[in-house]
Write a structure and sequence with these properties.
Blueprint: H1 23-27, H2 39-46, E1 57-58, E2 66-67
Antiparallel strand pairs: 1-2
Length: 68
Amino acid sequence: MHRKKYAHIPAGPYSASLKVTDYEDAANYTNYYEFSTNKKDSTVLAKKLKTSPWNVTVEGEAEKNRCI
């Protein structure tokens, strides 16, 4: 069971009364067009994607160019 981390924070005037997304749905979400045009296949294909080590470069109009 996942603890409601922000349960003590009151709802604001623009808060939506929507059901919280199930953990399994959120944990297995992919932007499926990057892997396949089929939503079911994309989750399987995405598991093979190596995301570490990756570098992100911030440059251009940034105050300080850097590679993270």
